[in-house]
Amino acid sequence: MNKELLKINDLKVSFFTPAGEVKAVNGISYSLEPGKVLGIVGESGSGKSVSSYSIMGLIDKPGKIVGGSIVFDGKDVSTMTKAERLNFAGNEVAMIFQDPMTCLNPVFTIGNQIAESLIHKYGKISKEELKKRSIELLTLVGINEPEKRLAQYPHEFSGGMRQRVMIAMALAGSPKLLIADEPTTALDVTIQAQILELLKDIQKKTGMAIILITHDLGIVADMADDIIVMYGGKIVEQGSVYSIFNSPRHPYTKGLLRSLPDLNKKGEKLIPIQGNPIDLLNLPKGCSFAPRCGNCMKVCINHMPEEYSTEDGHRVSCWLYDSRANNNAEVKNNG
Amino acid sequence: MANNESKTSPSGYNSARKQDVLIEVKNLKQYFNIKSSLGKKATVKAVDDVTFNIYKGETLGLVGESGSGKTTLGRSILRIYEPTAGRVIFSGVDITKLKKGKLLHYRKKMQYIFQDPYASLDPRMTVSDIVGEALDIHKLATSKKDRAEKIRELLKLVGLNTEHASRYPHEFSGGQRQRIGIARAIAVEPEFIVCDEPVSALDVSIRAQIINTLEEMQERLNLTYLFISHDLGVVRHTCDRVGVMYLGHIVELVESEELYKNPLHPYTQALLTAIPEPDPEVAKKRNRIILKGEIPSPVNPPSGCKFRTRCPFAKDICKKEIPEFKEHGSGHYVACHFAGKL
Ligand SMILES: Nc1ncnc2c1ncn2[C@@H]1O[C@H](COP(=O)(O)OP(=O)(O)OP(=O)(O)O)[C@@H](O)[C@H]1O
Ligand SMILES: Nc1ncnc2c1ncn2[C@@H]1O[C@H](COP(=O)(O)OP(=O)(O)O)[C@@H](O)[C@H]1O
Ligand code: SF4
Ligand code: SF4
Ligand SMILES: [Mg+2]
Ligand SMILES: [Mg+2]
């Protein structure tokens, strides 16, 4: 039996740039069950996109997977042949991006591009069948007058409509997993609401799993079953959506939630996270959050924290949760 | 941004503020002539006949979808654009009529903070040059020493290290760059600042820092803000009153608490339910109003009420008559034929 759809173990991805090795993903492990929605949050540059591109095999030079394994539906992605991988990306896993134009070709009609995705999945199919399926897909993603729309070019579509087209193309291969990288960040809130509602609806209909990457905690609260919080190329905390929001453990997760504006505390000052985002070229020796952490102890500066499990199923990488720790440990920054 | 005690009592708050109007915007229009996709001449009515007041010391929020006219309105008020029609009255003086020399005096009182701190900072200038230039234009430093001292103070005030003065913008993170933008704006001792999406380009973990800095500046320097944002969560926290824009019109304007509790315009109602709620218990249960379609082209807006093509309550009259922007209850302005009756 195969309960896990995706299992990532100690994945490491680096970019070898003139300025040095950028450890974009620095040893992450997680697994995802079929039909679940996993939200990945974290600040810009924390490795959310790179870790997900790795699943699709989309890491190009100067980037390289330098360690760990990715197993999808029982198959090790890194040992796939070229042909296997071609079939895998698109048909087993599909991806949508923040900017749909990165995937849409401006010189081909929408119909052409959807047809291409369908052919990728089904091989040779008749013209009538192609048209019928394309119209079904556009209807499924809520595009009116689909027949007319098939003959149009991407520039004739608004941002929200392009995102719908991209979702249609992703769905063409009936993937088991959809990776959505900031799918609504470039859209207005009313359009964002439309797209998120669409994703929920499709998820219900098809039962596919979704990895939803976003920096918006509101979006994961609404959509996700489980949440991963990334910081500096590592997973600092993971757990179910309810327990992450109700009892966050890692100081970074706590800080993020505390810094959100809240109507009930109007007139009170916001409580920000101190300091500046991390520089991956100059990673601290110990915990990467240490320079900004209000709970930082001596051990944190020089030693990477281990991962601890809590009774409610969180996994958290922070020295505070070491049962051997004594409470008199020296606090460096004031919190 | 309201840490002010009197603001908790609605009546006292209102009357105290009503006496102190800083800016009156009257029937302001900002049209742009463009060539349409077919090469024909067309007019974009980016801001179309808006009238409202900005009170001294308040933070007035401006929300609405992309293209609704928020930035244009902010720029027309500062006369970065020459308004097509209407008036902007600053402390009793109609600045839409002022000649260049006189205008400079008012430019100093009214500043602008941009969404993209990087694009708005000259990459060849040091932080000290950038802040110093603002001082020079308005002759605010009495000597070289005074200038250097003022720059140091400004940097400290916005939370930058004084050693940073000799560095260039690219050496800073997004949040720090926005601090440089704030330092430049407050250098000239303004009374009014248009903050155009000041935190939208910043990482979530940095936004709260910058909002706090803006609030501190407001308290210390008695500033009045026009705070443009599409993030209704941020607006809810920072603003005393909020105006909602749609296709060049302000469709609703009211104290922010009232807006979130009792929105009267159908567009506002939809906008509020579209905000992602960072609480899974609430988020997963609530019913959202999902608006159909997208904001129409401002070149060819719908007749009557411009929102009618997406409004779930539109009736015949909405096609024929433009709803008047009028008061429904104290200080609650709405432009909808059925305001309060829905
Ligand atoms: N200089 C210009 N020339 C022509 N049209 C313009 C100009 N500036 C703005 N517009 C148009 O005016 C309308 C309002 O634009 P504006 O930038 O004020 O919107 P906004 O509400 O600030 O949007 P956003 O949320 O995207 O910043 C848009 O349709 C825009 O394309
Ligand atoms: N093509 C590339 N070349 C060099 N560095 C890269 C490249 N792509 C990503 N990186 C670096 O990897 C890190 C993680 O990036 P990414 O996964 O895109 O972050 P996120 O999606 O969380 O914002 C960043 O420091 C980024 O600059
Ligand atoms: S390990 Fe130490 S520095 Fe890192 S988050 Fe935990 S307490 Fe803070
Ligand atoms: S005037 Fe009519 S169309 Fe416009 S918001 Fe009110 S009900 Fe809707
Ligand atoms: Mg990314
Ligand atoms: Mg704008």
UniProtKB/TrEMBL annotation, chain A:
Every ABC transporter domain range: 6-257
Spans through the membrane: none
Any one of the GO CC terms: plasma membrane
The protein's name in its UniProt record: ABC transporter ATP-binding protein
Keywords: ATP-binding, Cell membrane, Membrane, Nucleotide-binding, Transport
Localization per record: Cell membrane
Pfam families assigned to the protein according to its UniProt record, in alphabetical order: ABC_tran, oligo_HPY
Main localization, broad class: membrane
Molecular function per GO: ATP binding; ATP hydrolysis activity
GO biological process: peptide transport
UniProt cross-references to InterPro entries, sorted A to Z: AAA+_ATPase, ABC_Ni/Peptide_Import, ABC_transporter-like_ATP-bd, ABC_transporter-like_CS, Oligopep_ABC_C, P-loop_NTPase
NCBIfam families per the UniProt record, alphabetical: oligo_HPY
PANTHER family linked: DIPEPTIDE TRANSPORT ATP-BINDING PROTEIN DPPD (PTHR43297:SF2), OLIGOPEPTIDE TRANSPORT ATP-BINDING PROTEIN APPD (PTHR43297)
Similarity field: Belongs to the ABC transporter superfamily.
Membrane topology: Peripheral membrane protein
Automatic annotation (TrEMBL), chain B:
InterPro entries per the UniProt record, alphabetical: AAA+_ATPase (IPR003593), ABC_transp_ATP-bind (IPR050319), ABC_transporter-like_ATP-bd (IPR003439), ABC_transporter-like_CS (IPR017871), Oligopep_ABC_C (IPR013563), P-loop_NTPase (IPR027417)
Chain ranges of the ABC transporter domain: 23-272
UniProtKB keywords: ATP-binding, Nucleotide-binding, Transport
CDD domains according to UniProt: ABC_NikE_OppD_transporters (cd03257)
MF term (GO), any: ATP binding
A Pfam family of this chain: ABC_tran
BP GO terms, sorted: peptide transport; transmembrane transport
Family: Belongs to the ABC transporter superfamily.
NCBIfam families for the chain: oligo_HPY (TIGR01727)
PANTHER family: D,D-DIPEPTIDE TRANSPORT ATP-BINDING PROTEIN DDPF-RELATED, TRANSPORT ATP-BINDING PROTEIN
Protein name, UniProt field: ABC transporter ATP-binding protein
